[in-house]
């Protein structure tokens, strides 16, 4: 996947290597701006283990997002029938769960996070088997709720996960296209 916009630049994805990328990810997930990732106190070995577990799991995947060739974001997707949301909602065929994290930076680019979530969603919908994307952000994460809405997510209800109170939201392929298509 490669997306290029005049305002943001080129976004691409590559497979995450849990060993090689552990130090990079550790800096991202323990940063104060990444509090909702819930790894603030993680040690380097904890991050490496967490991503080794994802790499070994047939129902979860992690990718590193690059901005003009440099690591800049993290994308995770999972099968909600087997991970994260088991027993919390009734999954449909074609459902895919998603998380994303934009790397903390001292030089923010206007529109970057929205470009990232749009690219992540486009990547998920590139798979014809994906009919709906499911997210479960913390109910207090209003910034991500606004981003989710911007790409077509519709909140359904609050759910209690073991680690947080979450806002269960869904976005179909049609909702994503309607939300992100550029008027002629």
Description:
- The protein is α+β, with helices and mostly antiparallel strands and 184 residues long.
- Helices cover 29% and strands 30% of the residues.
- It has an 8-stranded mixed sheet, with helices on both faces.
- β3 (60-67) and β4 (70-78) form a beta hairpin.
- The longest helix is centred in the middle third of the chain and has 15 residues, at 112-126.
- The protein is globular and about 35 Å long.
- The two termini are 24 Å apart.
Measured on Cα atoms, how large is the radius of gyration?
16 Å
Sheet-strand content, in percent, reads: 25-35%
Shape: globular
Mean pLDDT: 92
Find the count of extended strands (DSSP E, 2+ residues).
8
Give a quick precis of the structure.
The protein is an alpha+beta fold. It contains 5 helices and 8 strands.
Defining key terms:
globular, 5 helices, 184 residues, 29% helix, alpha+beta, 8 strands
Task: Indicate the topology.
Layout: E1 2-5, E2 9-15, H1 22-29, H2 44-56, E3 60-67, E4 70-78, E5 95-102, H3 112-126, E6 132-135, H4 142-150, E7 154-160, E8 165-172, H5 173-180
Parallel strand pairs: 5-6
Antiparallel strand pairs: 1-2, 2-3, 3-4, 4-5, 6-8, 7-8
């Amino acid at each position: 996947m490669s997306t290029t916009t005049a305002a943001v630049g080129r976004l691409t994805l590559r497979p995450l290597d849990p060993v090689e990328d552990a130090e990079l990810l550790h800096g991202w997930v323990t940063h104060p701006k990444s509090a909702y990732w819930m790894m603030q106190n993680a040690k380097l070995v904890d991050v490496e283990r967490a991503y080794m577990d994802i790499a070994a799991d047939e129902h979860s995947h992690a990718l590193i997002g690059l901005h003009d060739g440099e690591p800049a974001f993290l994308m995770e997707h999972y099968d909600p029938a087997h991970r994260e949301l088991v027993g919390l909602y009734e999954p449909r065929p074609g459902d895919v769960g998603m998380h994303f994290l934009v790397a903390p930076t001292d030089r923010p680019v206007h529109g970057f996070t929205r470009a990232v979530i749009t690219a992540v969603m486009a990547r998920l919908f590139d798979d014809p088997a994906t009919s709906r994307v499911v997210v479960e952000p913390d109910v207090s994460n209003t910034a991500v709720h606004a981003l989710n809405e911007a790409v077509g997510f519709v909140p359904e209800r609050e759910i209690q996960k073991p680690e947080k109170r979450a806002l269960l939201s869904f976005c179909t392929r049609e909702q994503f296209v309607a939300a992100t298509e550029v008027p002629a």
